[in-house]
Amino acid sequence: MDLNTLTQFLAVARLEHLSRAAEELRVAQPSLSRSVARLEAELGTPLFERGGRLRLNAAGRLFLGYVERSLGELEAGRRAVAQAAGQGLGTVRLASETFLAFSGPLAAFKAAHPGVEIELHQLSAEETGRRLRARDVDLAVVSQPVAAEGLESAALLDEEVGLAVAPGHPLAGRGAVGVEELAEQPFIAARPGHWQRRLLERLFAARGLRPRIVCECDEAGAIAELISAGLGIGLVPDVARRTATRLPLVWVAVDDPDCRRSLTLLWGADGRLDTAARLLRDAVAAWDWAGGTPP
Question: What is the per-residue pLDDT for 94?
Fold first, then answer.
């Protein structure tokens, strides 16, 4: 098996869809299918379930971990050699569910270290932990728990999450609102698995309720836009209230002490961060996330 075959397997395994993987890799789908079939023949076992939707089977999930770690080590080696050869400080790969409010710390970091390239990867919390351990990304900022095995962490921020409504909404004049009062309200929410969606569902489930979700959206900015247009209400963290100033939104406190989120910085516990990643890790950890200013 060669690196190209492993890279192609990784794309198919991640997307669990041949045509989308072929489009991402810019190869013909029949060629990609043959590559996967040759890999399975070489290993002596199927790696995917092909009844209906393409899915990794148990052998495929096992093999995926080894492929991710192997390719991650090769990429780390390439970057280490580039740095040793004097080709700048290198590249650092940062993952997060959302990059809302990251412009401040990243802009300050680039101003201080113009020779460092930053790659941003928008990932779910579950995928973040896996790709950190595989060294596919260097650092991650998460808003919900990630299995700590093989990872180190630093707390960045614990903040209130409030309710955003449009001006003129019946709740706009309230200082605080109880969750029970929101049972019939239309919510603009993130997709399942996102921290904001999980918080919303957890608050309602604690009272035996389910939120009435009228729109699911992947983009934090789009959620705010739809709320400001009066199409629904939604949960928004305090940091967004301080940064999203152009939209006509009203923030209302939620009368529940658990309506909060915590930002946590994660990295691999093996102590093998390169110079660029260490610099960004230290800069992100030192940033004043509550005030939005450098240390």
Answer: 95
Tell me the two tokens of residue 210.
Answer: 């389910």
Return the CATH number of the domain spanning residue range 3-63. Answer: 1.10.10.10
CA angle 250, 105, 95 (to 5 degrees): 90
- Rounded to 10 deg, the angle between the 58-84 and 125-133 helix axes is 60
- pTM for the whole thing? 0.70
As a whole number, mean pLDDT of residues 31-44 equals 91
- Looking at 3.40.190.10, 1.10.443.10, 3.40.50.300, 3.40.50.150, the CATH number of the domain 159-260 comes to 3.40.190.10
DSSP per position, 36-75 = HHHHHHHHTS--EE-SSS-EE-HHHHHHHHHHHHHHHHHH
Distance CA 286, CA 9 (A): 39
**What is 88-156+262-286's CATH topology?**
D-Maltodextrin-Binding Protein; domain 2 (3.40.190)
CA distance 197 to 204: 11
